[in-house]
Amino acid sequence: MAIIGALQDGLSGDYSLLLTKAILDGVICMVFASTMGAGVLLAVLPLFIYQGLITLCASFISPYLATAIINDICYIGNILITIIGINLTFNNIIHIRVGNMLLALIVPVVYHIFS
């Protein structure tokens, strides 16, 4: 959600996925902080840096991308998030490696360049 949300925010200006992730991270940090201490709050620094860099890079390249490419990247990102939900729902039955599918975000760019 961090990578897809940052891309979606930078490309289309829709920050709803990042907001959802921030709420989830906040709840998880409260649980971790209750057992591990306040040092858990330091985890926000690298998270802010890499999500911010992805968002900035995506916002710089968005004027050079067509609307169709941006929509296709967001569609693939939403599919990957759906697969994460399937993994969480059917944890003992099925496990799909979503990290291996992150390169699918490049497919729309290559498709629109060569078509």
From TrEMBL:
Keywords: Membrane, Transmembrane, Transmembrane helix. It comes from Megamonas funiformis YIT 11815. The chain crosses the membrane at residues 22-42, 73-90, 96-114. PANTHER family: INNER MEMBRANE PROTEIN, INNER MEMBRANE PROTEIN-RELATED. This is DUF554 domain-containing protein. The keyword Membrane applies. It holds the Pfam family DUF554. It comes from the Bacteria.
